Sequence to fold (396 residues):
Amino acid sequence: MKRSLSALDPARLDGQRALVRVDFNVPVKNGIVTDDTRLRAALPTIRFLRAKGARVVLCSHFGRPKGGPEPGYSLEQLIQPLEGLLGVPVMFIPDPVSDAAPALTRRMTRGSVALCENTRFWPGEEANDPALAQRFAALGDLYINDAFGAAHRAHATTEGVARLLKPAVSGFLMEKELKYLGEALADPKRPFVAVLGGAKVSGKMDLIESLLPRVDQILIGGAMACTFFRAMGLEMGKSLVEEDRIEMARALIERAGPKLVLPKGCVIAPELREGITTMTVPRNKVPASFAVFDIDPATMRDYTQKIVAAGTVLWNGPMGVFEIPPFDAGTRALALAMAEAAAAGAITIVGGGDSAAAITQAGFAGKMTHVSTGGGAALEFLEGKVLPGVAALDDA
Ligand code: ADP
Ligand code: MG
Fold:
């Protein structure tokens, strides 16, 4: 367990400069934030610190600038949306690694908030350069990591700085992520059902391996199922199949036995086009000129039954091409099943960028026990890997 912000004596935060690593890597189109979920996710930590009289210095990466300043990737464009959410002015620090920056943070008033320029404007960030980490460390009297989504990277502002600036603790979002994802793995309420989908089985092999001994069932969907079907000797037409993973899939089917549940049938179409007429076929009847784009209604019912009977449900990866209706039906049906399970007292956890988007789009994000903001970090955590940004924090 890692020490968290909630474990610190709040009285000792008064007047302290809190350097907070957040994950403000939000989607932006034409200078407008199209989804502010990640900004909102950091608010509890920021509000708490302000209320305790701390001076809040935020830093984050944003996009993939090529190791230098690029106007399109400046975090200055997040000042306004952040001010809107917090209801207070936010100071922008364009050059947080300059000699003058520490003095700037010392002049901040109690409860005020500042946002540093994109940490990836300095090549030392991704190289985890100790000199750069030292520069950022000089902006705070304590370090708080609330950027779970960046914790799988050992960068200067996620890992290096946590070794230099103490105390180094987890923020509320990070704490919540570690609690729910950690408990699901360590001590799940049973039956524990994992629902795995998405495009490729290759990216999820480690996840399946890690979950297999812990879960009671793994329900497979998405294009991933097609590689398993091929391993069973079925023809998949034009479906997305990873030929080089068929052998692995075969071995997995054998090892997992009845734990691994595959769709009974599929929704198919000759091509991926919105509103196209689809067909429902058993899994051994996919014509050569068609591709699988969703699970069929029989599978939706089967998976729904298993989900509502579960004590813990962990979902990663959509059941079909949910971005393009009507191939969103399977994903929506399971989102509803997850909401019903949660209402009946089950722990429901969603991990993965597209999965989180799908559950939000279906309108059920608020009904889940936990929707991870983590994406790749959540996957690595669930695979049992050590996240460097977490490891570097103080132990509880
Ligand atoms: P996550 O981001 O939640 O981990 P993935 O990235 O693994 O999820 O998978 C999401 C993608 O999988 C989506 O873009 C979706 O369109 C795609 N997908 C799901 N089912 C199919 C399918 N049958 N054929 C092609 N793509 C699919
Ligand atoms: Mg994805």
